Amino acid sequence: MKALWFRRDLRLTDNYAMYALENDLEYDKEVSWFAFYHVDPVFLEEKCLHHHYFFQQVKAFEQECREKGITLHFIYGTHPFQDLLSAVPDLSAVYFNEDEAAWEAQRDQAIRDYLHKHGVYTYAYPDAHLHHSGEVMKKDGSPYKIFTPYFRAWQMLPKPRPYPCNLERFKQRQAEPALQDTHELAFNEMEAFDEAMNREAEPVFESEAIQKMSTFIHEDLPNYENSRDIPAEDATSRLSPLIKTGRLSVRTIYSALEPYVEQGSSAAQKYLAELAWRDFYNMIHAYFSELKKKEMNEKYRNLQWEYQEEQWEKWKNGTTGFPFVDAAMRQLNAEGWLHNRGRMAAASFLVKDYHIDWRLGEDYFRRQLIDYDPSSNAGGWQWTASTGSDAAPYFRVFSPVRQSKRFDPDGIYIKTYVPELKHVPARFIHEPWKMDEAAAEKAACIPGRDYPLPDVTHKTAAHQAIEMFKGDRNV
């Protein structure tokens, strides 16, 4: 008997491990199979948004499986394979889509070792990215550290096509193993988790994910290149949570995008680069497993970061007094998603204006983002902090006011998430502390009372950050 282990690949179409199992079922007419999902109590302990979002997709996926005649078994506990082997002694192989980076890769290897020790074969497949971590290398076999040459090499490689899955064949060969029935327990635990989070459910069914992708590529793509940096416009794909949870395959996205790439669409090329960035950071993380905890650039591993609790709380809650940064953080806290321009501005402010360690920001985003991806999140934070691969130079510091004026000139984004400023005129919306008394009264927003005053001067803070990187500042 063979098993298909679903993880962050919650779909019944274009699933590499599922496709591989189907081929083996076709080859061996006598073997049967079953599908399972493991609910780890550890992930129920931390009440973070990406766990909440993920469990919503698990429940939606289970419903889809049931409707299509596939039984998704649930294993609940900290030792899933010990329980699995006890319940299914004739288990011969486990198929799954692998993780390649950091502790996730170590976990997968430990599982392989355990199963092999007990006579069970494992078949793991790179499913979450267009190219796996070892596929795009320099001529000398070493990994790229700069994105542009990586992207050039990445573009030259043929892209994998979607993997078709025949559900009828799967249904005909489906087994009913004598697993302990933990379905109700697993679902009760997930329901309790959802109630504790006190947030609306956000299940997305696979057909909805594909429709959302199709609408973006076939209708919204033309506006992407010019509007993708404007957070007030709904101009990004917002597909990242669906990619992260596996409700949508990157191969399916590329297949839909490819005709526009071949036509020379610059917007399609821009979006293609975003998919390449995912692969790039996955590759970086696979070769530098401490990406979340240690600066890639060795000379910046002893930077003297500051920490003031009051400033940390201001940043988290969106009350720094810089409207664009505050709007970004409030969007993050309210929606569990953040526009990329807002991510960069908020991250830069934390490390270059407040001089707070980037690791704290990375961890806060980890807990708040529904599309949290360990490699992309850590890679992005190290880019902003000027400590990572192909990072922004330390002397280039985002101005929160200039970012605001450039990407939200009329303050539409700001007013959406910072309602205290909704009546502030456009000429003051980026720097409300400059309002005179009459303007403040008319806007019903007195700086320092209705909306906080900044506690840093950007020019001074940026200079201090530069001196810190140069090693000329003692903290």
From TrEMBL:
<feature type="site" description="Electron transfer via tryptophanyl radical">
    <location>
        <position position="305"/>
    </location>
</feature>
<keyword id="KW-0456">Lyase</keyword>
<protein>
    <submittedName>
        <fullName>Deoxyribodipyrimidine photo-lyase</fullName>
    </submittedName>
</protein>
<dbReference type="InterPro" id="IPR014729">
    <property type="entry name" value="Rossmann-like_a/b/a_fold"/>
</dbReference>
<feature type="domain" description="Photolyase/cryptochrome alpha/beta">
    <location>
        <begin position="1"/>
        <end position="130"/>
    </location>
</feature>
<feature type="binding site">
    <location>
        <begin position="236"/>
        <end position="240"/>
    </location>
    <ligand>
        <name>FAD</name>
    </ligand>
</feature>
<dbReference type="InterPro" id="IPR036134">
    <property type="entry name" value="Crypto/Photolyase_FAD-like_sf"/>
</dbReference>
<dbReference type="Pfam" id="PF03441">
    <property type="entry name" value="FAD_binding_7"/>
</dbReference>
<keyword id="KW-0157">Chromophore</keyword>
<keyword id="KW-0274">FAD</keyword>
<dbReference type="InterPro" id="IPR002081">
    <property type="entry name" value="Cryptochrome/DNA_photolyase_1"/>
</dbReference>
<dbReference type="GO" id="GO:0003904">
    <property type="term" value="F:deoxyribodipyrimidine photo-lyase activity"/>
</dbReference>
<feature type="binding site">
    <location>
        <begin position="371"/>
        <end position="373"/>
    </location>
    <ligand>
        <name>FAD</name>
    </ligand>
</feature>
<dbReference type="InterPro" id="IPR036155">
    <property type="entry name" value="Crypto/Photolyase_N_sf"/>
</dbReference>
<feature type="binding site">
    <location>
        <position position="271"/>
    </location>
    <ligand>
        <name>FAD</name>
    </ligand>
</feature>
<dbReference type="Pfam" id="PF00875">
    <property type="entry name" value="DNA_photolyase"/>
</dbReference>
<feature type="site" description="Electron transfer via tryptophanyl radical">
    <location>
        <position position="358"/>
    </location>
</feature>
<feature type="binding site">
    <location>
        <position position="224"/>
    </location>
    <ligand>
        <name>FAD</name>
    </ligand>
</feature>
<dbReference type="GO" id="GO:0003677">
    <property type="term" value="F:DNA binding"/>
</dbReference>
<feature type="binding site">
    <location>
        <begin position="274"/>
        <end position="281"/>
    </location>
    <ligand>
        <name>FAD</name>
    </ligand>
</feature>
<dbReference type="GO" id="GO:0071949">
    <property type="term" value="F:FAD binding"/>
</dbReference>
<dbReference type="GO" id="GO:0009416">
    <property type="term" value="P:response to light stimulus"/>
</dbReference>
<comment type="similarity">
    <text>Belongs to the DNA photolyase family.</text>
</comment>
<dbReference type="InterPro" id="IPR005101">
    <property type="entry name" value="Cryptochr/Photolyase_FAD-bd"/>
</dbReference>
<keyword id="KW-0285">Flavoprotein</keyword>
<feature type="site" description="Electron transfer via tryptophanyl radical">
    <location>
        <position position="381"/>
    </location>
</feature>
<dbReference type="InterPro" id="IPR006050">
    <property type="entry name" value="DNA_photolyase_N"/>
</dbReference>
